[in-house]
Amino acid sequence: MLSGLPVSQPLVQVCMVLAAFSALNFIVSIGTDPTYRTTFLEPALDEVRQGLQPRDEYVALRKGTEDDDAATATSGPALTSVGGDTTTEDAATASPAAETAQSRSDLHD
To answer: Region Disordered: start and end of each range (predicted)?
Structure first.
């Protein structure tokens, strides 16, 4: 008996083997028969694609953010001009506002 259930261990093992063979038969049928594929596999794959779409968008946004961070980190020191004073900042501490101020001062020069 399994944990107080009126089922013996050999019976559970036989059920597991039968379930494995049934699953294998189902997988082969889906892979070879177009009717099964359109009936079972394609709707399931559509649901998976639909469920993973937000994740893909998140990863794409995250990758874009990491690319921006990497570009900023590898660009070296940034020159900023605030009120006519030009200072050098490390790229890690340069703010977007400082970069905007630099690009505006470049336009006027």
So the answer is: 63-109
